[in-house]
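Shipment paperwork, digital attachment
Item: protein structure file
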Amino acid sequence: MPGRECHHCKQWIEDGEEHDCWTTTEAALTQELSDDLRDAWERLRETAVSLGDQRIYASHKVIMFSRKSCYFFVPSGIFSNSAFSSVAR
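Attachment content:
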């Protein structure tokens, strides 16, 4: 059975099968945030946007902010309650 395992999501992919576990959206990565975390995310995003014109995009499990190269990214794990409480201190 020829194919390969995706080194990102660990899904088995048959030869010739399309696979894109990286494409996502900012909305998809933030849709399940609690009200407190959504507020924190919106403040973080506003701060990043205030740095100037840039591209904001989501890929796999991160949201990236960039001009010519990525200079700011937020991994989706930062939004877990335990991770956020340690960052917020």
